[in-house]
Amino acid sequence: MDNHGRGDGPRPAGRGERPPDPLPYEGVWRFTAAAVDASVPQARHAVRDLLLRQGVPVSDDLVHGLLLIVSELVTNAVRHAALLSPVLAVEVAVGAEWVRVSVEDNHPYRPTALEADHGQTGGRGLLLVREVAREAGGVVDVEHTASGGKVIWVALPLKPAALS
């Protein structure tokens, strides 16, 4: 019996058939900013506004986590890379089931999440980023760029992580 045309399950894509259209909120957006303190709130607001404008289905908790991550990553680039990298780039990539934010600079130093002394007022930014990502079921990584700099990225699922 031939099932073609009856909608009885998935069919292989034939020639000339297009893959499904992306969801309206899917895409990649990138902007650059000077490596100065004022860029921290500007980057945070730009990411928040982008998520709202594109209609990305994010929970309030996920938005708060993403904005904290953006603040920490941009702050790190401003504090530790500005001398060699006066400009930084922020990228937001949204897929059907995830959102990824990254901050790129041209400084070659690859940071690590160090345990900071409790008496210190700084030094825990990457630990915080890793913890927020872990709680959301996401991942964090640092990669070298072709230009000799680095990009730190965090990918989080749009749906909350299942509690075990």
From TrEMBL:
It comes from the Bacteria. Residues 1-22 are annotated as: Disordered. GO terms for molecular function: ATP binding. InterPro entries: Anti-sigma-factor_SerPK, HATPase_C_sf, HATPase_dom. Keywords: ATP-binding, Kinase, Nucleotide-binding, Serine/threonine-protein kinase, Transferase. Residues 1-20 have a biased composition (Basic and acidic residues). Residues 37-153 form the Histidine kinase/HSP90-like ATPase domain. SUPFAM superfamilies: ATPase domain of HSP90 chaperone/DNA topoisomerase II/histidine kinase. Pfam families: HATPase_c_2. Gene3D superfamilies: Histidine kinase-like ATPase, C-terminal domain (3.30.565.10). PANTHER family: ANTI-SIGMA-F FACTOR RSBW (PTHR35526:SF3), ANTI-SIGMA-F FACTOR RSBW-RELATED (PTHR35526). This is ATP-binding protein.
